[in-house]
Predict the 3D structure of the following.
Amino acid sequence: MAKTRYKRTQYFVAAKFQIKYILYILLFLYLGAAIAGYTVYYTTWITLGEKLANIYPRSRVISIFHTANMALLLRLLLLTPLFVYIGIRLSHRIAGPIFRIENYIDKLMSGDYSQDLTLRKGDELQSIADKLSKLSQKLRKDKNMGG
């Protein structure tokens, strides 16, 4: 039996799971950026703060650091849509197969053993899909032998 290719037509198939997954990605993105930003800021302030204070007035040094922080924050905000997109794509490789597997199990429970379960290339849970297809083949064979 030839495998059918499936294309994504809906990116949110398990919205609750996918949104939670994206929020985790954004949490780690912002947490990592905050830790890195604080480390750089603190190190720079300690290393250069006194030297710059001898050259520039304190208000000018604070303004320089504030401008640098705003530039970093803006870049981080501009990257957010990219990370949301990546989160959707990655979560769909898990949520999509779960959605298809659940529907496939419903078909098996209703007695429909006519099709094998196929997932898109690169999707997770391939081994479970393969085992469910083997189960379906066995049930189909047993049904044909008994009936």
